[in-house]
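#lab-general

N.A. 3:47 PM
ok so I finally got the sequence cleaned up, no stray characters, all 519 residues accounted for. can someone with queue access submit it? mine expired

B.Y. 3:52 PM
send it over

N.A. 3:53 PM
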Amino acid sequence: MFQDMSGYKPRLISLTKRPGHTFGFYLRMEQGEDGHLIRCLDMGGPAELAGMKDGDRLLRVNGKFVDGLCHSEVVDLVRNSGVTVAFHILDEASYKQAKTEGVNLSNPQSPSLANGVAKHAPKPKLCYLIKSKSGYGFSLRSVKDEPGVFFVIDVLPGNVAHMAGVKVNDRLLEINGENVEDASHDQVVDKIKSSGDKLMILLADEETHEHYKSKLMKIGSWLATIKYLPHKPRSINMTKASDGYGFLLREDPKQSGHFMKNIDKGSPADRGGMKEADRLLAVDGKDVEKCSHEQVVDMIGQSGNKCNLLVIDKETDQMFKLGKVSPIVFYEDKKTSNLPPSYSEALNLPTPGNSSVRPQVTKEELKPKLCTLEKASAGYGFHLNGIQGVCGQYIHEVVKGGAADRAGLEDDDILVEVNGVNVEKSTHEEVVEMIKRSDSRLEMLVASRSVYDQLTTEGVTVTRLLLGNTSYAQVHHEDSPGSNSKARQEDNAKAASSNKAVRERKSSSSSEDSVDVRL
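B.Y. 4:20 PM
back already:
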């Protein structure tokens, strides 16, 4: 007989990742452990900053109970949810106790906390001001001996600041996307003056500031409401006509993005509100800002007869860029409005003040590695973990002094090829079987995660063709690290040819004792 969840309070944590990056944690299933485990959180990553802990158990994804689902189904749910996902999390001790007591974890009656914050938490606000002849229409008061504490004063009804949503005693936190909580009064004044005639500021009233202060949470624009902003991205719903949607999608060589042009009058696009030169942000809720032109066209084509596009006009685009805020983040507000009430105030927490979760790599370091391993009596000396739907497989638990270590493999390296065969889209079982078939010699093309992320973001496909480009490749052999002889390259070509058929094979072997997915 199941008990209800009285006494257990799952945390509701909503995470936002940037294109090409992860949420900053691993989702695992481990032998001898129940549930979907949160592991290996990136220090300073979205998951850690939002309050996830090692050993936490994942109960729900966007409201769907997942504790009883298989690992691959949960990964697919997260993967298909876009840039922002809402997770219900229960700490390890509570989860194990609930399992022991036979508690029904699927019972949603227990109240949840959103990122450790009550579901109706107040929000800071983004305000966009365009200077008039009399200025922005507000003054700032700083607090003596407290750098970075600035309060708004002298907001007159009907002036620029008042119309933008600024109120007396609001606390100033950011100017044009830059935090000013450590700035001096003169520095803040200079920032406002150098902004020209447009200004995006992040403000919090006393209640909001005290609320997040009590939770030891930093306030940033990712927490803000955009209801005061004069311009917002637009959602366009279209039903395809016999001659299509009635617009052309183009790439502009002078600026990044996908733009609308030649909109036919009376077409589905025209009736949906599409405008010339609109920039496309998302197709059916999926971020396309880092996708190629062909990928976006395919996504629209795969939508069938109905398609939803999120677009932004030039003026609105410039406004968000001024505040260093991605408009795609706030698209989740619209999506979550149809979820149960406990999700309506889920918070978006990308890494504050950092454009990427992982450090950028210099061009000199931007190199994959070709590693050749000779099997020892103890094996190859590494563990292979699967990443379903993210970027293939990765190397884990490299044994110091073992074959893998001597060949140059490192923990967290992304596996790209095995004996000349690309395995980025292969299942974990297929890759394990390929390695088993390698007998006593194994050749692996790998890249560190930061290198892999940057190369793929730049549109560079990691293949053996890069071995001929000294800017992009390293070759490691266990017996002579760094060598790249002509004979070895001929061996590589033979290995690629002999293993060509492996792409078509399906493996029936079992997977490792632990399954590890990076999210």
